[in-house]
Amino acid sequence: MTVVRFLLYLISFGLPKKNVVIFNSYKNTKFSFIAKNIFLHGIMNGKVNYKFVINDEKLRNCLIDTYGDYFITSTNIKDCYTICTAKFWVTSTSPVYKFPFCNIFRKVINVWHGIPLKNIGVLDYEVSAYKSFLYKTVYRTFYTYFMVPSPSLGEVYKNSFCIGDDKVVYSGLIQPHIVTKENIKDKLGAISKDVKVILYATTWRSYDTDYFPFADFNLEKLNNYLVERDYIILIKPHHLEKSSVERFRCSNIIIVDDSYINDISHIFNSVDLLVTDYSSIYFDYLMTSDPYIIFVPYDLDKYKYERGFNMDYEYVTPGPKVKTLNDFCNEIDCFFSGRSLYKEKVEYIRVNYCGSEYNMIDKFNELIS
Questions:
Q1: Of residues 66, 64, 83, 75, the one with CA closest to residue 20
Q2: Residue 169: which of 266, 280, 282, 90 has the closest Cα?
């Protein structure tokens, strides 16, 4: 089938391109990341020429039932023809087909999937020599444009993906609330309307994540604290996380996965506080109306050595770094009592890294006009 797709791709060079926008995400199987949000914004505003590639048949049929006939595969001949004759390909990871110079006679736009706090691309310490070679020789030919949140991040993207200034478009980050406003409290069911929801989302590690790495940690004590104050902690492990977090499940600590929350950014506006470590999700959360973040960088030196950072972690993380359970609880109380000390730093990061002065949807529409 790969040979058939490639032959169709070659034949399509001589065919006129249609005003169709093809979206895809992780391995053509996930409905996720920024590509998803731009796609949803489009179809909600009458874009009938948008198509999203989902090769998972069960998920594709579910999405068709939910949103309509916008979803295709990259495997059958009819859909391959639609993809190969489309004027625009949009991805949050890599193109729907990884063919060299696939941006000839079409625009291929990478919108990525968050600000890369950690090293990515050729800068990733864990990337193989072979994949690094592909980045430098083949992958760099894929894209017409690479959407970058702000000028402060230009060099990071250029160095990571071996692209030049001519491919970089500064765009800001998409604000999730313009796509959907899921209320996590509705999903949780019978809870108080006044309950405060604390989202705990972590990055992926090659080793098990320790969610509460405190010498004074006591699960019963933490849960009692949450019950007394009417707080709930919602733990959302990374989708590649293999270690079990079930040991933390109790009345006011809830564990959820991708089947429960497909896109974590869609619940941001019903979350009162974010807890994280090195996950770039916090940059997206900074685009909400009143963001506050508690950081738990318990293995900072180890993680920095094994993965590396594109920027100074301490400088770009506007929030307290906690080391004990008492600190953790005190910082939660500090925020909910209105004693936030990080508003100026938050605004600085929003402007200089998240590109809050840009409008990503407007920039994207310019690229496909």
A1: 83
A2: 90
Residue 177 has pLDDT above 70, yes or no: no
Residue 287: closest CA among 172, 118, 170, 197: 172
Q: Report angle CA 358, 364, 369 to the nearest 5 degrees.
A: 130
- State pTM to two decimals: 0.92
Per-residue pLDDT, averaged over 30-54, amounts to: 95
Query: Domains of the chain by range and CATH?
Result: 2-173+357-367 (3.40.50.11820), 178-352 (3.40.50.12580)
CA 328 to chain centre: 25
Q: What are 175's two structure tokens?
A: 């604000």
- pLDDT, one tens digit per residue, over 307-362 is 999 999 999 999 999 999 999 999 999 999 987 789 899 999 999 999 999 999 99
Residue 150: exposed, middle, or buried by beta-carbon count in 10 A (0-12, 13-18, 19+)? buried
Nearest Cα to Cα of residue 63 among 211, 314, 200, 55: 55
Q: Are 108 and 35 in contact (CB under 8 A)?
A: no
Q: Supply angle C-alpha 39, 41, 43, rounded to 5.
A: 70
Cα 147 to Cα 149: distance, rounded to the nearest angstrom: 7
